[in-house]
């Protein structure tokens, strides 16, 4: 009697689930293009206070073209041109720049400007403002500087019990734009337990791009053995995506600046890998990660799209005025995360 030969075990299908939306948001695109246009229009050097956006590759690329990144305005030669980053600055920074006769280009994201205006308005109404955000983050420092006598920073739910407020019935909360939606709502829930009269801002402060990238990761993470987020360590929204992936069911979740930081050991036994990128990440870095994964056997790419973004912001007013006077075309191509490689929607 012949013993049946067992059939070979099926080979697991290796694939990449690519999040969409991902990468550059409208505010980041505006800020990066502002520096590029300034260099083209005025020539190097163009000074930039802080990192224009939180991404190593972007900063290094602009520096190679003649952008000079400084920590404070007093490092900029008097009368020179300086760009303020997408994260925004306080009135004190504007005053310091004016005192040195600096020519400023304010590349603050309009959604951050909206939060600044909320802080000013609530302070004028003599309300106490609870700013949910990370102490030391440039965006939080800029917003806090709008009304320091009226604002307390709340880093997260763990800060709530220790808060001491002036008048619990005249409290309002606002937030950093790049936070985790879920963690922010948990902080608000805890705040409202302590302060039932807490007032909400008139509209959501967490930016549309941050929310959209988190929603896309939540959708793909449960099917993934590993999720890779492309983004820098000081990018708040990129770090949040790593956490969101893990909390949403991915077995493992890692952040890298570029493909060279990928560790093959992370993918042992994995069949499905998720890939996304933070809102300050150019698509070339995502392409590099996909190419590296393809070389390791993950060549099949499926796009998981949860939203389509079509928002664009006009360039900073100061730059638009100069470009108009010089007859320079202000149009620019979209940087909406589309890739040159073909992908199949799922």
From TrEMBL:
GO molecular function terms listed in the Swiss-Prot or TrEMBL record: 4 iron, 4 sulfur cluster binding; 4-hydroxy-3-methylbut-2-enyl diphosphate reductase activity; metal ion binding
Pfam families, alphabetized: LYTB
Catalytic activity: dimethylallyl diphosphate + 2 oxidized [2Fe-2S]-[ferredoxin] + H2O = (2E)-4-hydroxy-3-methylbut-2-enyl diphosphate + 2 reduced [2Fe-2S]-[ferredoxin] + 2 H(+); isopentenyl diphosphate + 2 oxidized [2Fe-2S]-[ferredoxin] + H2O = (2E)-4-hydroxy-3-methylbut-2-enyl diphosphate + 2 reduced [2Fe-2S]-[ferredoxin] + 2 H(+)
Sequence positions that bind isopentenyl diphosphate: 54, 87, 137, 235-237, 280
Keywords from the UniProt entry: 4Fe-4S, Iron, Iron-sulfur, Isoprene biosynthesis, Metal-binding, Oxidoreductase
EC number: 1.17.7.4
Origin superkingdom: Bacteria
Binding site for (2E)-4-hydroxy-3-methylbut-2-enyl diphosphate: 54, 87, 137, 177, 235-237, 280
Annotated residues for binding of [4Fe-4S] cluster: 25, 109, 207
Binding, dimethylallyl diphosphate: 54, 87, 137, 235-237, 280
Active-site positions on this chain: 139
InterPro entries in the cross-refs: LytB/IspH (IPR003451)
GO process annotations (BP): dimethylallyl diphosphate biosynthetic process; isopentenyl diphosphate biosynthetic process, methylerythritol 4-phosphate pathway; terpenoid biosynthetic process
Cofactor(s) listed: [4Fe-4S] cluster
Pathway in which the depicted protein is active: Isoprenoid biosynthesis; isopentenyl diphosphate biosynthesis via DXP pathway; isopentenyl diphosphate from 1-deoxy-D-xylulose 5-phosphate: step 6/6; Isoprenoid biosynthesis; dimethylallyl diphosphate biosynthesis; dimethylallyl diphosphate from (2E)-4-hydroxy-3-methylbutenyl diphosphate: step 1/1
Free-text comment on the cofactor: Binds 1 [4Fe-4S] cluster per subunit.
Region (Disordered): 324-346
UniProt function note: Catalyzes the conversion of 1-hydroxy-2-methyl-2-(E)-butenyl 4-diphosphate (HMBPP) into a mixture of isopentenyl diphosphate (IPP) and dimethylallyl diphosphate (DMAPP). Acts in the terminal step of the DOXP/MEP pathway for isoprenoid precursor biosynthesis.
Family of the protein in this entry: Belongs to the IspH family.
Stated name of the protein: 4-hydroxy-3-methylbut-2-enyl diphosphate reductase
Organism listed in the record: Cellulomonas marina
């Amino acid at each position: 009697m012949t013993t049946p030969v067992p059939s070979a075990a099926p080979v697991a299908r290796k694939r990449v689930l690519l999040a969409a939306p991902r990468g550059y948001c409208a505010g980041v695109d505006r800020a990066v293009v502002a520096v590029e246009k300034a260099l083209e229009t005025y020539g190097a050097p163009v000074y930039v206070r802080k990192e224009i956006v939180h991404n190593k590759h972007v900063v290094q690329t602009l520096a190679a073209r003649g952008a000079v990144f400084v920590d404070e305005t007093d490092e900029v030669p008097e009368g020179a041109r300086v760009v303020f980053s997408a994260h925004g600055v306080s009135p004190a920074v504007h005053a310091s720049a004016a005192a040195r006769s600096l020519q400023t280009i304010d590349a603050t994201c309009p959604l951050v400007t909206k939060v600044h205006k909320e802080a000013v308005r609530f302070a004028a109404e003599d309300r106490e403002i609870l700013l949910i955000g990370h102490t030391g983050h440039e965006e939080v420092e800029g917003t806090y500087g709008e009304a320091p006598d009226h604002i307390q920073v709340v880093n997260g739910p763990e800060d709530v019990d220790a808060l001491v407020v002036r008048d619990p019935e005249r409290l309002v909360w606002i937030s950093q734009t790049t936070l985790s939606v879920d963690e922010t709502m948990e902080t608000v829930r805890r705040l409202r337990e302590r302060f039932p009269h807490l007032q909400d801002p008139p509209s959501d402060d967490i930016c549309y791009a941050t929310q959209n990238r988190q929603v896309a990761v939540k959708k793909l993470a449960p099917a993934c053995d590993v999720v890779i987020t492309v983004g820098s360590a000081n990018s708040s929204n990129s770090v949040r995506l790593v956490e969101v992936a893990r909390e949403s069911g991915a077995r493992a979740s890692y952040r890298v600046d570029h493909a060279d930081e990928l560790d093959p050991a992370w993918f042992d036994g994995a069949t499905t890998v998720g890939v996304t990128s933070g809102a300050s990440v150019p698509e070339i870095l995502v392409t590099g990660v996909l190419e590296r994964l393809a070389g390791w056997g993950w060549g099949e790419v499926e796009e998981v799209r949860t939203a389509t973004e079509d928002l664009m912001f006009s360039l900073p007013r100061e730059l638009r005025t100069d470009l108009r006077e010089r007859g320079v075309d202000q149009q620019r191509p979209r940087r909406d995360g589309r890739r040159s490689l073909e992908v199949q929607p799922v």
